[in-house]
Amino acid sequence: MHELSICQDLMSAIAEAAHRHGARRVVGVHLRIGRLAGVVPELLEEAFVLASRDTVADGAALRIEPVELAVRCGDCGGRLTLDEPVFICPACGSRDLHVVGGRELELTSIEVDEDGADDATP
Ligand SMILES: [Zn+2]
Q1: What's the 51 CA to ligand 1 centre distance in angstroms?
Q2: What global pTM score does this model have?
Q3: CA–CA dist 54, 102 (Å, integer)
Q4: In whole angstroms, how large is the CA radius of gyration of the chain?
Q5: pLDDT above 60 for 28
Q6: How far is CA 76 from CA 16, 22, 88, 100, in A?
Q7: CA–centroid distance, residue 14 to ligand 1 (Å)
Q8: 67 CA to middle of ligand 1, Å?
Q9: Rounded CA gap, 104 and 35, in Å?
């Protein structure tokens, strides 16, 4: 499954970020996913549950921010977002469109449990 290998890469980025923050537990993971990233959010969520099992992010909530497909027209210079991947400029009818956004697959932030898993309060 494509989404599972993405999640495995993601897990190493999450583990690294958690380590940088000195966090023992990650409770939330924020992602930006472009419409053209080729990822199905529902499948990604399922894969995330599998990939995060027994890791620092076990049970963390996945929050996905979709990124619109954005293009720049090579003829009129217009920049627009497309609801559908139909590559025709609505302003001038040109097909010379360049994708400038929508391929993102980024880990934007993580939420950590400050108290950690242990109850260290005296
Ligand atoms: Zn145009």
Answers
A1: 43
A2: 0.79
A3: 32
A4: 19
A5: yes
A6: 43, 50, 12, 15
A7: 40
A8: 21
A9: 8
